[in-house]
């Protein structure tokens, strides 16, 4: 049996409050329950939930510390990654999670409600339908940057209160040098190996595209 406690999160984020530790601890049982009904995580992966999904999602927090009052859109969140772990870590930031598959959003809503995450809203929508503007757009493993960018272009607030400019923070794998070139975007690549000892297989980078 793999370690199903959130100790690995504390190893890299040692300043969590009791409330956050409790919320991270609840994730395992919640995802075991919901994943049995609606498949949002590969079933063989569930025992690695904290490493492959929760810690992996928090790689974004190593690049950007979201501030109170900022807003973050998670495009193609699936069962809530990276949005749910980030919403636990940054309770003063507003998160909006969307996915084009309704039953995945049902899981997100159920998990968020069980955790009492008041800073998270989720909707069954395609990213292209969203009219609001955000400080940051996060995402994990949805599509190539060149296809992704037009979905969210123009959805960024102008004003910024963060140490880094508003922009996209995308957990990605693949041949990123080629993909970034093809997208014609000015992107910065951050390998997760700079922050974590764990191996994240085919999704080893945070791509940051300032706006
Ligand atoms: C490979 S899954 C990744 C899910 C999640 N981000 C994760 O890493 O576990 C890609 C998700 O993107 C969603 N998706 C694809 N195109 C989308 C769009 N235009 N708007 C919103 N969601 C989209 C799909 O429904 C799917 O749930």
UniProtKB/TrEMBL annotation:
Role, per record: Specifically methylates the N7 position of a guanine in 16S rRNA.
Single GO cellular component term: cytosol
Residues that bind S-adenosyl-L-methionine: 76, 81, 127-128, 140
Subcellular location: Cytoplasm
Xref: Gene3D superfamilies: Vaccinia Virus protein VP39
EC number of this enzyme: 2.1.1.-
Alphabetized HAMAP family for the sequence: 16SrRNA_methyltr_G
Keywords assigned: Cytoplasm, Methyltransferase, rRNA processing, S-adenosyl-L-methionine, Transferase
Family: Belongs to the methyltransferase superfamily. RNA methyltransferase RsmG family.
Coiled-coil blocks: none
The organism of origin for this protein: Pedobacter agri
Species lineage: Bacteria, Pseudomonadati, Bacteroidota, Sphingobacteriia, Sphingobacteriales
Keyword Methyltransferase set for record: yes
UniProt key word Hydrolase: no
Broad class of where this protein is predominantly found: cytoplasm
Gene Ontology molecular-function annotations: rRNA (guanine-N7-)-methyltransferase activity
Name of the molecule in the record: Ribosomal RNA small subunit methyltransferase G
């Amino acid at each position: 049996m793999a370690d199903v406690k959130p100790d690995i999160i504390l190893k890299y984020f040692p300043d969590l409050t009791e409330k956050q530790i409790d919320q991270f601890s609840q994730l395992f049982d919640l995802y075991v329950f919901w994943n049995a009904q609606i498949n949002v995580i590969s079933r063989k992966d569930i025992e690695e939930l904290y490493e492959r999904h929760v810690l992996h999602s928090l790689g974004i927090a190593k690049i950007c510390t979201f501030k109170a009052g900022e807003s973050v859109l998670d495009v193609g969140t699936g069962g809530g990654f990276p949005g749910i772990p980030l919403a636990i870590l940054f309770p003063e930031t507003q998160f909006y999670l969307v996915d084009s598959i309704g039953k995945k959003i049902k899981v997100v809503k159920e998990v968020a409600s069980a955790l009492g995450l008041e800073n998270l809203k989720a909707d069954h929508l395609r990213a292209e339908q969203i009219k609001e503007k955000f400080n940051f757009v996060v995402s994990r493993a949805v599509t190539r940057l060149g296809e992704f960018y037009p979905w969210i272009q123009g959805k960024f607030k102008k004003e910024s209160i963060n140490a880094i400019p508003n922009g996209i923070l995308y957990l990605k794998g693949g041949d990123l040098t080629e993909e970034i070139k093809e997208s014609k975007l000015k992107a910065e690549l951050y390998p997760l190996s700079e922050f974590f000892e764990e191996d994240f297989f085919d999704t080893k980078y945070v791509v940051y595209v300032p706006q």
